[in-house]
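Rotation project, supervised by the postdoc (A.L.). Task for the rotation student: set up a whole-complex structure prediction and record inputs and outputs verbatim in this book. Inputs entered:
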Amino acid sequence: GQSLEQPSEVTAVEGAIVQINCTYQTSGFYGLSWYQQHDGGAPTFLSYNALDGLEETGRFSSFLSRSDSYGYLLLQELQMKDSASYFCAVKAEAAGNKLTFGGGTRVLVKP
Amino acid sequence: DGGITQSPKYLFRKEGQNVTLSCEQNLNHDAMYWYRQDPGQGLRLIYYSQIVNDFQKGDIAEGYSVSREKKESFPLTVTSAQKNPTAFYLCASQAGGGGVSNEKLFFGSGTQLSVL
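Outputs recorded:
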């Protein structure tokens, strides 16, 4: 089967940096995605990593290590609007090339 | 504007009743998905369709049914066989083909289903 683990909650202050880790177990791994979801809203796509390394998009960066079955999402210069849940999702042959989502990390940004 | 639309935003179901959630997209995407989200949890796949007139069960298909008669539409019916239907239901679409840009799922704003 497949499994993904990410922390349930992280709290930080405005301007800080937060790293959300995601470890996964699967077979036939293709890539790791990250989505942001505000309360009661639709998830929105942040990034997709298929190769090892760091991908930077503005204040958010995503990292993947295929050999360690590990990735993280880095949120820099935190703003109040970044308070949301963040989900990692794995695309793998084990799930018929469909996404399997983690349980989500709730990020609370305090002034 | 292109996008994916779900309706209604809130839906109430009586015991023994079937209800249908609507999902429409004008993005010309081939693939469409239905996910269920319970409070404080991740998304679980109910059904998906990669082409018109074809669909497959996801991880939690029992008690649900779908159809894909048009590319733009992928309605989900929650049947009376689903004994715990209260959840937030999300529809998503995805463009076909390879490439990183096509890995992105576009989500609708969701339907909150509750049992009366």
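Student's summary: The first strand of chain A starts at residue 3 and ends at 5.
Supervisor addendum: Residues 53 and 63 of chain A are 5 Å apart (CA to CA).
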